[in-house]
Amino acid sequence: MFSNFANVWTPLIEAKRVGRTPLRVELAGEGLVVFRGERGEIGVLQDRCPHRSVRLSLGTVGDDGCLQCPFHGWRFAPDGENRHVPLNPDAKRSQLNATSLPARVIGDLVWVYTSPLGQPAESPQVPEGLDEAGLTRTYITRTWHCHWTRAMENMLDSPHLPFVHRRSIGRGLARKMKPDSRMDISWEDTSFGGRSIALMDGVDGGGRLEFFRPNVMALTIPMPGRHFRIHALVIPVNESETRLVVATSRNFLRPRLFNLLFQSSSRKIADEDRAVVESSPPGEVPPPGHEQSVATDKATLKFRHYYHRVLRHSAC
Ligand code: FES
Ligand SMILES: [Fe+2]
After folding, report:
1. Which CATH superfamily is domain 9-113 in?
2. What is the Å distance from ligand 2's center to 310 Cα?
3. What is the tens place of the pLDDT at every residue in 13-54?
4. In 10 A of CB 109, how many CB atoms?
5. Domain ranges (residues) in the chain
6. What's the whole-model pTM score?
7. Coil/strand/helix, residue 240
């Protein structure tokens, strides 16, 4: 399961979208089914019945919070435990469980661990903007036709801002940029991934870009006395499709009406990126050294190193 994306925590879906109706979600080439159990707990199972491999997402969740397979009615709890095998009272149910994945709700999102082999040692490391109480958050989702690694490194790439986003988030940089300008990118390894700062002609504009392994970017927009962050959650669907969730968090302009403004801005930024990212060759980013790189590629090269040394060839 999850070849090239195994043994990591990843955001999967907004928790509010998950209820008693089983929902099929594709993640890194694996079909998953997500539903809520009796006490509202989230279950994430491989969307494949252990009996005859039909999609469990075609089934139904009963009052007991168990997901019933549509074919022969086997019933599974959110943790995958087999609770009933109709017409077979002698069946060894403990050997007939569904494959479940560790899952947690953090902030507004369901996070899942890409290995069915028990609880992972570490907890997901989540940007504070996605988790902290008292912040107002917005989300938008886009599907891009590209390998997720191309989309992820786009999110870590500062020098594209004054070009691709010259009319939005990169406007300030575009105005300051002169033909002989220089951008210096710093990178600091952190426990969760890394932090990058981009200086334009030696000036720190205050923005902070953080990478949370394997697939989350958090950008702090400097606003004195205020919290404003833009997050990109780059979720692999399969080899050629990526689900991009852009989340914002803020502690100002709190009325919900303003959410529309932030969502509209997130959509604009994402859609500006889309055409260039989708124009890259199909498939994953190449290893460092396989495309020409310059000094301002420091952060994206860090990602390429991580992907090719750690994630690639991972499987469970
Ligand atoms: S295929 Fe699921 S119960 Fe038979
Ligand atoms: Fe961008």
Report:
1. Rieske [2Fe-2S] iron-sulphur domain (2.102.10.10)
2. 25
3. 999 999 999 999 999 999 999 999 999 999 999 999 999 999
4. 24
5. 9-113, 131-311
6. 0.95
7. coil
